[in-house]
Structures are given as C-alpha cells and as structure tokens.
Design a protein that fits this description.
The longest helix is centred in the first third of the chain and has 19 residues, at 98-116. Helix 7 (196-211) packs antiparallel against helix 9 (252-261) and helix 13 packs antiparallel against helix 20 (630-643). 39% of the residues are buried. The N and C termini lie far apart (69 Å). The chain folds into 3 domains: 70-289, Transferase(Phosphotransferase), domain 1 (Orthogonal Bundle), CATH 1.10.510; 298-307 and 319-418, Phosphorylase Kinase, domain 1 (2-Layer Sandwich), CATH 3.30.200.20; 425-643, Orthogonal Bundle (Transferase(Phosphotransferase), domain 1). Strand 20 and strand 21 (568-569) form a beta hairpin. The chain is α+β, with helices and mostly antiparallel strands and 656 residues long. The protein contains 20 helices and 22 strands. The strands form 7 sheets. The protein has a 6-stranded antiparallel sheet. A 3-stranded antiparallel sheet has the order 1-3-2, covered by helices on one side. Helix content is 33%, strand content 17%.
Length: 656
Amino acid sequence: MEFTSTSETVTLELVRQMMKKFITIRHNAFVHFIGVAVQPFSEEHAARRAPWGGCRSFEIAFLLEDYECKVQEGLAAPASVNCWIDLWRFVLRKNLSTAEVLQYAMHILDALCYLHRQDPPFVIGSIRTGIVKLAPSFTSLKILALPISAMYPDIYHCLQLLGNANVYYVYPELLALIQRGDGEKLFGPHLATFTHADLWSLGCIVLDMVTQLNLQHVDKNGILLSPHLSEEEFQAKMIAGGRPYIPEGIPTVIRQLCQRCFERNPRSQLTAEELLKFFSPELQGMIETGEVSESPPVVAYLLYPEPITAALPEKPSMRHSNVAYLRWISDIGKGGFADVYSVKIINNNDPYGVTYSYGQKPLALKMLRSTSLEESVKVVLLSLQHPNIVKYIVCGMLPIALNALTPSVKPQPGILMEYYAGGTLHDFAERGNPQEGDLIPLLGQVANGLAYLHGLGSIENKNSIFHGDIKGENIFLTEDKKSCRIGDLENHYLLKQERTITGGFRAKAGTLRHMSPEMLQHLASFGDNSPLAATNIGRASDIWSFGCVAVEVFDKGRVEYRTTDGTVVSTESSLQQVTKESPEIQFARYVSQGASPDLTHTEGAQRMGTALKEIVRKCLARIPAERPNAAQLCKDLSVVLLGNQIGKIELVYGQE
C-alpha cells in the first residue's frame, strides 16, 4: 500500500508507531494482522507520485492471517472448514431475518467498541459490506479494514484510501473534513469526535443487509438521490444534510439502530458501547424466544447526577452524570403535563447503586413535557421517604425522544420512580367492586401519607408540602390492592404556617371536582382579586380533596356535586351556552354559592357508613379552619376501623 502526506508532522516514525500498535490489537471480529513494514519511497519515486513537491511518501506492507484458502463464490455447503464468504455475496442471495441482521450488526458493533476504547481511539472510517467476511458456519465474521486514523489522511491520500465506491458508506462530516484538508484532526484528542463515522458506516451495512444491497440516500428534504449523481454531487448533497434512506416497513428495532447510527447532531450521538447496551438484550431475546418484538425495545437512557453528599459539590453542573439504560415495557398513562411508562433497567454505570439495586424490577418513568425541573423540586422529591408516598429514585434528563426512535432536540426531564402494579385508586373504585372494609384502610393510608407531607409527624419533615391535586388518579396501589401511595408530587407547594409560600397556588393546577372552595375562588378570580386572595390555600385544601376522594371511591369514580336546592352541578360545555362563562368558572361560582359533593343521594353515599360519612362531612367544611388535619383524620379513621372490627391505622410519619 502506498501512502503520501503533505504534513511535516507525519513522520516515518509516527506512521510506524501507529501501525505497529494497530497490529497488536486482537479481536475475534477483525482479520489478524501478523506484521507490518513501513519504509519511505526513494526521492525519485516520491517525485513521480506527488510531482507538486513538499510531500512525504511511504510504502506500507502487511502480513495477515489467511482465513479463506479461497473465498467461497456461492452458497453451497463449504468444501472445507476454511472457506469464508463475502458478506455482500451472502446478502445478495439470501433474505436475512431480523435476528440475523442484528447478530451480524452486534458483531461489528462489538469490534468498534474495542477499537474506540483504545487510547487514542482507532477510527476505520470506511467500513462497508464488501470488506466483511462470513465464517463457514455463517455465525461469525471478520472485518478486513485498516483504521484511517492510523495514517495521515490528507485529501490526496484519503480519497485514494476510501475509493470512489466507498463514499456511500462514509460519514458526511468525514467527507467534509477531507474536502477542507483537515486530516490532522484525525490524530490525538480530535479522534473521539469522529468515532461516530464508524457507526454511520455500520448503519449503511445494516441497510445493505435489509435491502439486499439496495442502499439508497436522500437529501436534507428527504428526496431520494439519483444513482446517476457524480461523486462530487453526491458528496455535496450528503454534507448539506443528506443521509441513507431507511425504508418503510422494516422492523422497529432495525429502524431504531439505523436512526441512531445516522444521527448528525454530536450532542445526541450515542457511542458504540451505548448502542451495544441498547440492542444486545433485544438480540438475546430473539435468540431465546425466536420472536421479533415490533415495539421499541428501549425507551431511552436517563442521565442523572450523583447523590449529593458532603464530599460532593452541590452544583448540578459540577457533578458527574450517571447513565441508566431503560427497556420499555408498556405505557402506563398520559396526562396534560407528562407521559408515564413502565420500564426496566437493563444496565447502568451508577457506582452508588441508586438505580442498579432495583435489578430487573419494573419501574415507572415519568417524562415531563416541561423543559426543566427545578433543582429545589428534585431535592424535595428525592427526600421523601414514607410507606404511603411514591418512592422517587432519581431525577434526570432524557436525551432521546418519547418514541425512543430518535434523539430529541431538547432533552426532557425524566423521573424514575418505583412502580406499583395495582393501578390507581380511581380505577379500582371505577372497575372493581370494593367494599367499605377494603376502602377505609386505603383511605387511612392516604391520610397517613398526607400527615407526613403536611409535616405533622413526630419526625420533622423539613419540607412541609401541600400537594394541591389529591385525587384517585394520583394514588397508586400495590398489586394486591392492600396498600397505596400518593404520587404526582412534581407540582407540590412548600408550606409556611399552613399556607403556600410565595407565589401561592397556581391557577388550573388542580382537578376541578377535587378542588376546595378557596382553590376554586383563586381559579375563578372573582371576589377578592388582591395578591392575598389565595392565602387560605394550604393543608386544609388537601383535606377537602381527601373528602372528595372518599366520595369518589364509594361512588365508582364519580364526584357528584349538588347545590343547596338539590340541583346536580355539571361541568359540561353546554353550560357555557347559557351563561357565557366557561364551565370551570360556572362550576366555581356554584361552589362559592354552596354547592358541595353529594353525601345523600348517590349510590356511593348510601353505601358509605354513618361514622365514615361524618368524617367526610367534616373534611368538606366550607371554612378551611373547621376541617380536621391529616393526623386527626388518621385517628378518626382508626376509630371507624376498630368499630367495624377491621383493625386500626398505624400512623407512620416518615423514615429516617
């Protein structure tokens, strides 16, 4: 092989060192280079090769192990164990299964992980289907390639090395680098920037396997490029934003892999190791079950900081980010502010074991639609420790979009929580047939959790919290439906002297039929419009919502309001046609005039025992100061339980 360089920094000794290091690398997916010889051309020969002068010319010879004896030309059974076949021939004549495509891709990816871990990393830059050889068993492969980063790739030599036929597999940024003549950037600290070039080539090889060598490209607008474009025109299109075309209808897991290989934004690019961690479990599942999952195998990866300790700085920007790799199981629910998924951790690098300790247990991942989650909110959420409060594990950022298929332009806040398989209290009431003996213990646990949030326990809660949206849909049950936990605390409000701290309650943050009269007054903004109008909103507002939850669970998920004259209050949009007020404002006005949850006429009210009904009635007192606090609720509910010979509520305030 001949090599010409115009750089004064590329000496014969440097080329020898790089090439000698390369032949010491051993990986089962690489052809074994046994030896290398590097020598300069004579001045006369160098002048003929580079007549413009000022160039250094070297001749490089390799000795490599012979795997083939001869390369098998067809697909008949190998004549001997030494017969290997070109991958391109195999792909052209056989329609590969998804598992086979993934298997070969993972072999290549594993080899790239090995190369990119070297110091400095090796970048091949021109992997293509034509330089991959399959073993006679078709279960393993060898890559016959030299790392472009082991030599100085100036424009003259790099085009010679890549070759006209290889340009369709080359990373556009590398093409741009070649055109600018910045080959020296492929040495030293700049190398890590271009490791993605090998992943781009891998994506092209995957598409070759899927399409049986019908690799096509599109421009930045998604329009297919003509196969008759000149090399210069093709390169220009790719550098301007073009990419390989991923056909419709290919398996989701293949689409995922290709899209991540073809990512152009450096901030969103995954390393070879990250890609391998994503897709190896999917391949293993196919091997074990023989089935191909059409759903995204991974939601994303979650970046989160180390826990704050005395030995670590508290500024988030100064703390190291850990990575949790998450396998998607299913959707749990979608709301106005977030989507929630059931996930499993498949791997992570958390040295503290914060997430790794959960092993393969299902967890809940809440992906917030907001662009940030305040650090003070994270601190409060992670500090909550109570058997009736959802356990928040880590708060971080998700650089991958919701569908797990493409990197997101704006990473989203994500919260990893314990998963409770029993669904919500609302669903249990609506779809099940719970009796009073089932519901009172659960209501007692909700009161228990509220007592902890409100800071009423014997163990001081440094962050007394007003929830602001207590309802059945935010209370989660364990699988046996014997225990429950209050969740959806991301929009909590800190309390001072039983009322919300500066800023007060945010309008429209709660749920209409569970909002207390003082909250609805603030929502409607009628009456007292002064900045102090919302100062009555606080712990007592959560107690009203608790009363609504009691009505909800006994009446199959409904909370029906009646006016003082017995008229049922609706929140339907038809009200707007009569009053010219929004349904929300009209509902708030009814409540301000005395409407309240029905404790008399509904089926649920008639199912509710007298003692419990009296407790709920106190919770629904119109004057906040007349409502019991959460600790008193626990005591009152214990009396009801003892009276029904069910048991009693052990008031738990928190855990150290």
